[in-house]
What does this fold into?
Amino acid sequence: MSGHSHDHDHQHDHDHSTLSEMDVRVRALETLLTQKGYIDPAAIDRIIETYETEIGPHNGAQVVAKAWAEPEFKAWLLQDATAAIASLGFTGRQGEHMVAVENTAEQHNMVVCTLCSCYPWTVLGLPPVWYKSAAYRSRTVLEPRKVLADFGVALPQSTRIRVWDSTAEVRYLVLPKRPTGTDHLSQRELAALVTRDAMIGTALL
Amino acid sequence: MNGVHDMGGQQGFGPVLLEESEPLFHADWESRAMAMTVAMGASGQWNIDLSRSARESLPPAVYLSSTYYEIWIRGLEKLLLERSMVTQAELDAGQLITPPVKVNKVLTRDTVDAALKAGSPTERPIAQAALFKVGQKVRALNMHPQGHTRLPRYVRGHVGTIVSLHGGHVLPDQHTLRALPPFNVAVEWLYTVVFDGTTLWGAGSDPTVEVTVDAWESYLEAAA
It folds into this structure.
């Protein structure tokens, strides 16, 4: 939740003049759809709450940490990511058909959606603005090394880069390389090392 | 359609701009826009392909000058107007003027979690054998349909290699042909196809790059 209640009848206590055009437009739409009986504002609240507090990159980090720690789980993840990820309880919207791709010394993987903003919500939550930007969508398939440079990432020229354009309902999760010197860490500690961008392929660990 | 949304390989958009400690939403209306779009999707009055089609057929100048959730709201309004679920006068007034149409389902607070957990899988049983196998060379068709498609322009006409098969999936190009339920469902094999960067972008491009797309069978033909 965003910390204050939304009223749905325009009787809010803000000064109208401080509201953006989009704020007014979206409030009007929500009021209308509620009056029509098409939506329940409490359901809207619950959807927001879910993505603000429950579904996010911490889910994906758990998947990655488990794959690093348990070779059998890693094999399952690479073979049938949908089932392996579902075994941790992460299923559903924008993660119905999952594929995990492993970074190695030979191949680095990056994920993009050139046509819209397809992104594995079940394991990463909602995408950041840059992922949805025209710059990222246009350039990643054309010049991924230059895009990586925008993120401060430089890969050896000997590493092949495979860019996965999410053009159907398959959603991709990058399995980053496990950092060296982490043999002694628990899965919980390993998960804390895993970043969202590493699971998109725009960061290294 | 060859829309402005088909951005792969376009140039001139500048660097990827990163925001330190980016919030999940940049305004309250963004969160309401996201959740209303999700909730209205559950109403069953359209499908995901129709909603993508509504966004990508916005006028190009509007698409490029709108923020992400603005595009979602414009797309949602368009879907509602097309089905006479709301009128422009109602959108302008932010008030009900005409009675609602009947919808299949209204999400409540109690049904949200199950709906999100279930999602909307697009895989379907498929009886016929797959036309292509892993390792086979295929050419992405040089096609320019007027309607919705998910074959990006930058691979059209180029030869790639089948990487994997994903079973039968609902074909977006057909799924958008009927605006209201029951939707037009055609199921085809879905493949991941990999292309060499130099095939797509020419001899001078980075030889260490490969790009994959997910492509339905009717987007592809066997290549010698």
Q: What stands out?
A: Chain B is about 30% helix and 15% strand.
